[in-house]
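Batch manifest, entry 17 of 40.
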Amino acid sequence: MSTEPLRVTLSVRHPDCWTIATTERTDVGVLGRVVATTTGDRTTSLVTLYADRRRALDDGEETIRSFSQVHAVTPVPATTLGSAARTAKPGNATRDLLIDHDAGAQISGAFLSREFVTARPVDTHDGRERWTLLTTRGRDAVHDALEQVAAEEDADISVERLARTSDAAGEAPFSLTSLSARQREVFELARARGYYEWPKEVTGTELAEELGIATATLHEHLHKAEAKLLGR
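Output type: structure tokens
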């Protein structure tokens, strides 16, 4: 029996989440890297807004400030964070924010209480959260736990990948931080759906239909992403 933990990659949507709502209303993504100690019913989170254009960051921050669950938003100068935090950002334009908000709408507690730990920042874009979790539970127990979370939180949870951490198949061998938000979204979907497997598990036309774009546009995004990742 393997003693290596399972890596669980999820696509999640749950109600009353200001992070998800922000990405639906604006052209930004939200990368949640740190959650501070919760005090009472409130908590402070450090997040990064990312977008293709800097103007979208203003729209995203203004939208976040409008939610009743959010009590204060404080921009964090880039020089305040360490080098590791500064480099782990997607998109062409980014902004770090400290956000004081209600803790009740977070789904993280439901995962943590069931022996999951976060392995990567939570990446939210286009109305869904992408979680990467680690657990020592078996596969059947993982599926049971996720069904419990979905029922408890009224959440839509899709398992994108479930593999032992030693299984590197399908993992990105290069940093994605050089990609724009749209290039990153298209490239990650192509990987998740098996576009880069041999033989291919999905065609470019099928991916384009899922994204609602032309096939030529899909290939343009993929070619630009591949060129950046390969250093060309």
